[in-house]
Amino acid sequence: MTSPLRAVILDLGNVLVFHDNGLLFRKLGARAGLSPTETESRLLATSWTPANRGLLGAEGLRREICRSLGVDLPMDEFNALWNCHFTVHEAVLPRVEGLVGRVKLVLLSNTNVLHAAYLRPLLPVLERFDSLVLSCEVGHVKPEPAIYKEALARAGCAPEEAAFFDDVNEYVQAANALGMRGHLFTTAQSFDAQLKALGL
């Protein structure tokens, strides 16, 4: 017998907001005089994961990325470039709003302090979530089991009582391995159908 669904755990990027990393690499690269490919390579090799683990605060993140790209940008300019690639996924927000009060609603995201600070005001619905599990605040990143267990603890439910949605299949599979009901997020329309299949 299937356990009752008590929690929905949602990813942030490419679920609640779109993030065009290609645009980010192009804009940062243009400012540093580097190709998008070289910009991506340098960022992924140095600061990406430490930033997501919360090892770099806002100023530390600015310094580390500027160092890796060989450019020195003031914080205002850097922050604007660092967040240039986000667009709110308007179509999915009403469905998420409809979950408020029906299940525990938890955000589970690999992110850094500057992205988190930028996106919170753009997503008022986050204030209605029961908890926000941000990698930069808890020190763990997907697909590590510890960050999923943190989300479950905050939801106050067993793995089989939680549905998890993410656009990265590796992260969905990690949730399934813990006994959660993992679903690959693709579109707002598919999300709606997935929720209906779950009785929501």
From TrEMBL:
Alphabetical list of Gene3D superfamilies matching this protein: HAD superfamily/HAD-like, Putative phosphatase, domain 2
InterPro entries named in the record: HAD-like_sf, HAD-SF_hydro_IA, HAD_sf, PGP-like_dom2
Domain of life of the source: Bacteria
Regions that span the bilayer: none
Protein name: HAD family phosphatase
